[in-house]
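Weekly modeling sync, notes
Attendees: S.R. (lead), two postdocs, one rotation student

Agenda item 3: backlog of single-chain predictions. S.R. asked that every request posted to the team notebook include the full sequence so nobody has to chase files. The rotation student volunteered to paste the first one in as an example of the format we agreed on. Action items at the bottom.

Example entry:
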Amino acid sequence: MASGIPDPQSSLAQWLGYVESLHPQVIELGLDRVRRVADALGLRLDCPVITVGGTNGKGSTCALLEAILASAGYRVGLYTSPHLVDFNERARVEGRPATDQQLVEQLAAVEAARGAVSLTYFEFTTLAILRLFAQSSLDVVILEVGLGGRLDAVNLIDADCAIVTSIDIDHTEFLGDTREKIGWEKAHIYRPGRPAICSDPQPPQSLIDYAQQIGADLWLFGRDFNYAGDRQQWSYGGRAQRRNSLAYPALRGANQLLNASGVLAALEALKSLLPVPAQAVRLGLASVSLPGRFQVLPGRPSVVLDVAHNPHALAHLAANLDNMGFFPYTWAVFGMLSDKDVEAAVAPLKSRIDHWFLCDLPGPRGLSAEALRQRLAAAGIVADKDHRIETFASPSQALAQARIEVAENDRIVVFGSFLTVSDVLATRERT
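Predicted structure, as returned to the notebook:
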């Protein structure tokens, strides 16, 4: 590795460290720089592409698409971010994470093509993964938007179908501070004349207006597609297609039928390009998995992992916790980033958490446990004779202490950030 630049024999960790050091800003939205490098690479995807954006539900929607399309026999590429444990999780080819060697080869190609163009970590790695997909003889590619939509590097690709899952307040410094502003940003993954799915039951008018302005084929939940269900099964109804007597998705959570109906709307819209038989839908719903989204670990006490980190997601987490039944006490292992609205986010959980184990999160955006304690106090959550609040250096340390102190019939909820859950999962894998 001469002059600090890795070579094709360098490790993936060396490459990622180098890529992370290149750009002065962690996030710099815009497509000009990334498009210049994509053109230099001759980047092109020669198969149908489905892009998925939204505030919450993106990961579940991508996982459902991948599971159903793979069950239909298609060779699927899936790009998601961020990862929980290993970077390789971000690029899945035919259901398997990309190897270190595959990723190093593509990172080296981006480095050779970029010249003097400075790329963020996300832009650099997005180009590398897109190039991997372009060379993998895939039948379909699923791309999860990183942040927003309009200026996100993923929006470099003209999707054959785009899904916006939900719109809520998050990343306000980049996307605006209202649902109307955020909806307009996210709607820019839609393309003229192509299916544009929105599975948010109350989409901002700005999203509808933008889709109509560009002539996208807008599919709205409640107007163009819907679902109905009872305790045993559910059914999807679209513009011209019904899928009846479906089992519930293997993913936990009260909002998964909303995500699944958006997926089935996209597949209905793409049926001439990617026909999917009923059996593939059933197999995909049954086999789908997604770590860190209301994931309940085996054993007792019950331990729930959830990457929920904004008010909308935490309201869903609260509802899902209510559906779990009775537990004498609920213990929280909680860590958040400093740019999140902690006070609004924890509001749905105030009455559902008995004891709070707060943890430091790493990196420049990580909030210290002590600062998090102060944010909780501002939200009216303080220690008293019935409620404990303690601080820890990491989520895994907080969880280890919680496991010592809880009763077998209690539950522990680990939440607040991808970083909170990833530390727990990484520690679990090492032990």
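Discussion: group reviewed the output briefly. The chain is about 40% helix and 15% strand.
Action items: rotation student to repeat for the remaining queue; S.R. to check formatting next week.
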